[in-house]
């Protein structure tokens, strides 16, 4: 299993189906070095990597920035699909986060989702399939 980074958006987001507030967000779109990112910061705030693996911690953290656009996911509720947020950066600064729903362009999780899974997830988002 690969390493993932953790994220904290500025605003609280809830599952669009069950309504549970979601706190744990993760992504494979970033460096995957167990980094902790917070919205409105250009670089990660911390890492879970041991000190002996990274050398100077400040220098290590300042070496990383996020891509212009990336996805984060939460599995905090009992729903069958993760809740996804689409995040945006300007000049490396994470400054905008939006719910990734049926109204968001390119809904098929950036091509990582089979067509049948995509259709089932759309039914779930429309609350046709409740957990």
Spatial extent as radius of gyration = 16 Å
Summarize the amount of helix as a percent range.
10-25%
Number of helices: 3
Largest sheet: 4 strands, mixed
Molecular shape? elongated
Strand numbers in spatial order across the main sheet: 4-1-5-6
SSE succession: EEEEEEHHEEEH
Poorly predicted tracts of residues = none
User: What does the average pLDDT come to?
Assistant: 83
* Residue fraction in strands: 25-35%
Quickly list its features.
elongated, 3 helices, alpha+beta, four-stranded mixed sheet, three-stranded antiparallel sheet, 131 residues, 9 strands
Can you give a write-up of this model?
The chain has 131 residues and is of the alpha+beta class. The chain contains three helices and nine strands; from the N terminus they run ββββββααβββα. The protein has helices at 51-54, 57-62, 115-125, and strands at 5-8, 13-14, 21-22, 25-27, 35-38, 46-47, 69-74, 83-90, 93-99. A four-stranded mixed beta sheet has the order 4-1-5-6, with no helix packed on it. Strands 7-8-9 form a three-stranded antiparallel beta sheet, with no helix packed on it. It has a two-stranded antiparallel ribbon with strand order 2-3. The longest helix has 11 residues, at 115-125. The protein is elongated and about 50 Å long. The two termini are 27 Å apart. The model has no long low-confidence stretch (mean pLDDT 83).
Structure summarized in a few sentences:
Helix content is 16%, strand content 29%. The protein is α+β, with helices and mostly antiparallel strands and 131 residues long.
